[in-house]
Design brief:
The protein has 227 residues and is mainly α. It has seven helices and two strands, in the order E-E-H-H-H-H-H-H-H.
Length: 227
């Protein structure tokens, strides 16, 4: 006969002396109690707490941005650091806070991280008028690390999410654009070898991933595009 935990409102296996969720000792008075609850606790209360926490975070971020930008403009009569704060706050929310609140999958997180981080570095470089450091080293290194991480996760998993294919493809596209820019528009300004390494590695890993997961990728693409 299963035991019952009053704190979590769920039944616990008979061979367990403590609740696996809260760790409290199972109340022996409820051993023969009629089953009136589901096996899993009701998470509506936790969902309400999450919504309240989300609202608090959003209000706090907005107030912080307003206070900082107004303070910089009123006290220093300038608006130089404010854009960094606004863009950085937006990045923190979209890339860090929102995925945890919405419980994004690894593929969605990796895809958003690659795109948002690349755009963040480009903004910082152009706004600060320090052109060259991000495109030369930071972005290629980030794309290289992202390609390797996505590849390792895909091969180490026992299952395959076709959306991870798009994350790997995103790395290939960005690295291809950077490599093309280093050969054309930014020739002589942007060093070729970092973008070349990032491009070659991302393409090789993408092709290898397609070879190992070819059937599942094709099946997923057919489902996505109704082939």
């Amino acid at each position: 006969m299963e035991n019952f935990c009053n704190s979590c409102n769920l039944y616990v296996e008979s061979d367990r002396s403590h609740c696996p969720l809260c760790g409290k000792c199972v109340n022996e008075d409820n051993l023969n109690k009629a089953r009136k609850f589901n096996y899993f606790p009701d998470y509506k209360w936790h969902k309400k707490r999450k919504n309240v926490a989300t609202l608090i975070v959003l209000v706090s971020l907005v107030l912080f941005d307003l206070i900082f930008c107004l303070g910089e403009f009123l006290f220093f009569n300038q608006f130089n650091i404010g854009p960094y704060v606004l863009v950085g706050t937006a990045y923190i929310y979209v890339a860090c806070i929102l995925p945890s609140l919405q419980m994004w999958s690894f593929s969605a997180i990796s895809f958003s991280q690659v795109v948002l981080t690349t755009l963040l570095f480009v903004f910082i470089e152009f706004y600060s008028n320090t052109f060259g450091w991000a495109i030369n080293f930071v972005i290629p290194s980030f794309i290289l690390a992202s390609s390797i991480a996505i590849y390792i996760v895909n091969l180490s998993r026992g299952y395959y999410a076709r959306s991870n294919f798009y994350s790997s493809l995103c790395c290939v596209i960005i690295s291809s654009v950077l490599f093309a820019l280093s050969l054309t528009i930014f020739k002589g300004v942007v060093r070729i070898w970092p973008t070349l390494v990032s491009f070659v590695v991302s393409v090789v890993l993408f092709i290898t991933l397609f070879v190992f997961k070819r059937k599942k990728i094709i099946k997923g693409l057919k489902k996505d595009f109704n082939w």
